[in-house]
Amino acid sequence: MDWRRAVDIYCERTGPEFWSEPINAVSNLAFILAAILPFMAMRRAGRRDGLLTLLCLVAFCIGIGSFLFHTFAERWAGLADTLPILLFIVVFLFAAMLRLFRLPRPRAYATTVGAFGMSLFAGPIAVDLSGSSLNGSVSYAPALVLLAGSALALGIQGNRAARPVAVAATVFAVSLAARTVDAEMCSQFPAGTHFIWHLLNGTMIGILLFTLERYGRPHG
Hints:
The protein is mostly helical.
């Protein structure tokens, strides 16, 4: 595989130049803020939480990886963009099972592996059933289902974390729509709508991390 092969899939990019996607590149600051602000809140409270710190670090890496993809726009940078996202999904899912649902650690591990495995299986099927990848957004649909399902399950339990998780799921749904229509908006809006995906996804991640910081503190 040619890892230096150029990738041009967004409205804003008009050439191979480093700054051909300035809005898409700079809007990744949303992920950086989403990583830094919950971490600062944790430290101001005088707490040390390894799991939350790890999630903040992964969120920071999402911003860096996406910035690289929207500047270098090569296959290797695409990997730097997607791997932190997958890692965040896995780690947050585990954190939610352990800290919000309060499952014992073995069950939290098993539930995380099972849910993530099903989402990996469901993604390609959803693409086939739709007849299109919808600009690559269908692969994120299982994550939306997991998030919305978690909000519903927390609500049934009467858990106070249900509301912010539901808000995060709603924000994610809107951001996914913005990502999906980017290619269709090129003629009307040359900058496209992918930057909205960044801004709203950063907001969604920030909500989830603050939710974990507030409601998902370690046992004891």
